[in-house]
């Protein structure tokens, strides 16, 4: 049986068009529950004691500002299960970030968490017009990438026929799109462009030869012009999707058909925008760091999680009738995280791998660039020690080994080049320049 009824205008109208007061009441109730859950987590118990907070002091959504912030480092420091608020036997899945050099972050889910997540994604997909008659194809990585299973379960919840194509193999993606009649596709923006490029090479006209009509794009910064170009090329409407694995994954915020800001589901999260330095809230409309408190999470509730994503709240009502606030398109990060091919990478991960090689010096340069026919790539130039060999075969072997180890760590394949000592650029302050982002902004 396919649910919900395809004649219904919304997947969950009672929650999506809840009044502002209704949302506040729901948030207040769920915040109290969340704080009670957090009191089971030693990290939060200690923080509450430090700040003199008792769970019963938190009565309304306005009290959220009394609560402590949580950072990615806090999650790393309590790897793997330190943030669990339920026994592990009640959890049914975990997702983990990449990396072996430091502690990755782990996010735990109960069955109810997974259900809530699927509901959020279903709500997003329904909002942009996906219906049970559609065929949904997902070109995200599966496994630990939350966009794989996250979109999968959400699309199934809508009742679409789903094609879990996973990342890569563009010719096969195109064959699936054509043969299975894919009408709703999820791809990161640069990969959507790549699919179009390969369609062109193959003489496939997306408007003539496919049923594509809706595209969900996210996980990678992109401009309005890039969106319009993708829409024009593929003959689709493209909707911006935002999610982070610490919150669950995709489904946190999504554009509606107005394509004017991303509704963030306030029955799932309390949204704050803060100044990343002072941590004070900024007025609505002003740019700052997105801070989220989970309201529906059982296994791993998080209080005031600093996402490091910079955005602002769009003032005013959305003509679609949903009262959940809208975030402007994401405008960068307050930390040094790199997003490449939809994969999150911290330069420190690269540095830690490089430091393990005694043959190379301490200077390196990460360059991100867009290459014709190859898309966005990362090259890593590494200085070789003076004392090291100039034997070509030995150097090639070393390059190969560094590449392999970096790929295992960051999940994308960098182009590693060994360069003589003293050849890498130095910035004005005489500090080594570590990252250059030359990617083509559309
Ligand atoms: N999504 C889907 N496919 C992608 C992609 C992406 N973000 N980025 C690149 N690809 C494709 C390439 O076009 C290539 O296709 P081909 O087989 O037709 O040549 C293939 O994947 C391999 O890409 P390549 O760049 O050579 O490999 P890599 O080792 O650097 O990267 C990926 C490996 C692409 C598999 C890895 O980056 C990945 O899994 N990305 C997806 C991440 C993701 O889903 N994030 C969440 C999104 S919301
Ligand atoms: Zn709207």
Give me a quick take on this structure:
The chain has 442 residues and is an alpha/beta fold. It has helices at residues 13-16, 20-38, 42-51, 72-77, 111-127, 146-158, 170-179, 189-201, 206-209, 224-234, 347-354, 392-410; strands at 91-96, 106-110, 135-138, 161-163, 184-186, 214-218, 237-244, 249-255, 262-264, 269-274, 288-294, 305-311, 313-314, 326-327, 338-340, 343-345, 360-371, 375-384, 415-419, 435-437. It has two domains: 1-334, 3-Layer(aba) Sandwich (Rossmann fold), CATH 3.40.50.12780; 338-441, ANL, C-terminal domain (GMP Synthetase, Chain A, domain 3), CATH 3.30.300.
Keywords for this entry:
GMP Synthetase, Chain A, domain 3, nine-stranded mixed beta sheet, binds zinc ion, disordered N terminus, alpha/beta, Rossmann fold, four-stranded mixed beta sheet, 442 residues, binds coenzyme A, 2 domains
Textual characterization of the structure:
The chain has 442 residues and is an alpha/beta fold. The protein folds into two domains: 1-334, ANL, N-terminal domain (Rossmann fold); 338-441, ANL, C-terminal domain (GMP Synthetase, Chain A, domain 3, 2-Layer Sandwich). Helix content is 30%, strand content 24%. The protein contains twelve helices and 20 strands. The protein has helices spanning 13-16, 20-38, 42-51, 72-77, 111-127, 146-158, 170-179, 189-201, 206-209, 224-234, 347-354, 392-410; strands spanning 91-96, 106-110, 135-138, 161-163, 184-186, 214-218, 237-244, 249-255, 262-264, 269-274, 288-294, 305-311, 313-314, 326-327, 338-340, 343-345, 360-371, 375-384, 415-419, 435-437. The strands form five sheets. The chain has a nine-stranded mixed β-sheet with strand order 4-3-5-6-7-8-9-14-13. A four-stranded mixed β-sheet has the order 19-18-17-20. A three-stranded antiparallel β-sheet has the order 10-11-12. α11 (347-354) runs antiparallel to α12 (392-410). The protein is globular. The two termini are 43 Å apart. Mean pLDDT is 94; it is low at 1-6. It binds coenzyme A and zinc ion. Residues 139-141, 145, 147, 167-170, 188, 191, 194, 218-219, 341-343, 411-413 line the site of coenzyme A.
């Amino acid at each position: 049986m396919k649910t919900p009824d395809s004649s219904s205008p919304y997947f969950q109208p009672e929650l999506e068009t809840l009044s502002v007061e209704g949302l506040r009441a729901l948030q207040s109730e769920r915040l109290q529950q969340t704080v009670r859950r957090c009191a089971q987590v030693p990290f939060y118990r200690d923080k509450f004691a430090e700040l003199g907070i008792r769970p019963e002091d938190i009565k309304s959504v306005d009290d959220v500002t009394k609560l402590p912030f949580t950072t990615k480092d806090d999650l790393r420091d309590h790897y793997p299960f330190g943030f669990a608020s339920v026994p592990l036997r009640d959890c049914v899945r975990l997702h983990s970030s990449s990396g072996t050099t430091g502690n990755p972050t782990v996010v735990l889910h109960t069955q109810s968490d997974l259900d809530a997540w699927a509901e959020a994604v279903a709500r997003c997909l329904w909002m942009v017009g996906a219906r049970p008659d559609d065929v949904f194809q997902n070109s995200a990585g599966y496994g630990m990438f939350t966009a794989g299973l996250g979109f999968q379960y959400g699309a199934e919840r809508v009742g679409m026929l789903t094609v879990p194509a996973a990342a890569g193999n563009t010719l096969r993606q195109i064959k699936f799109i054509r043969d299975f009649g894919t009408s709703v596709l999820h791809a990161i923006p640069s990969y959507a462009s790549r699919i179009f490029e390969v369609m062109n090479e193959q003489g496939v006209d997306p408007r003539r030869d496919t049923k594509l009509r809706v595209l969900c794009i996210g996980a990678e910064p992109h401009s309005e012009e890039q969106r319009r170009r993708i829409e024009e090329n593929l003959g689709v409407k493209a909707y911006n999707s935002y999610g982070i694995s610490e919150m669950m994954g995709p489904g946190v915020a999504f554009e509606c058909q107005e394509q004017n800001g991303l509704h963030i589901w306030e029955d799932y999260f309390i949204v704050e925008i803060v100044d990343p330095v002072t941590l004070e809230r900024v007025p609505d409309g002003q740019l700052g760091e997105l801070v989220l408190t989970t309201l529906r999470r059982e296994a791993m509730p998080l209080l005031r999680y600093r996402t490091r994503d910079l955005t602002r709240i769009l003032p005013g009502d959305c003509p679609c009738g949903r009262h959940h606030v809208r975030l402007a398109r994401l405008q960068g990060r307050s930390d040094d995280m790199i997003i490449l091919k939809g994969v999150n990478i911290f330069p420190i991960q690269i540095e830690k791998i490089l430091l393990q090689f005694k043959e190379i010096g301490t200077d390196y340069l990460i360059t991100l660039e867009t290459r014709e026919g190859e898309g966005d790539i990362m090259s890593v130039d590494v200085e070789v020690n003076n004392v090291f060999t100039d034997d070509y075969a030995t150097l090639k072997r070393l390059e190969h080994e560094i590449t392999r180890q970096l790929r295992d760590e960051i999940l994308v394949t960098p182009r590693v080049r060994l360069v003589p000592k003293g050849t890498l650029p130095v910035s004005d302050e005489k500090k080594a320049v570590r990252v250059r982002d030359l990617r083509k902004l559309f």
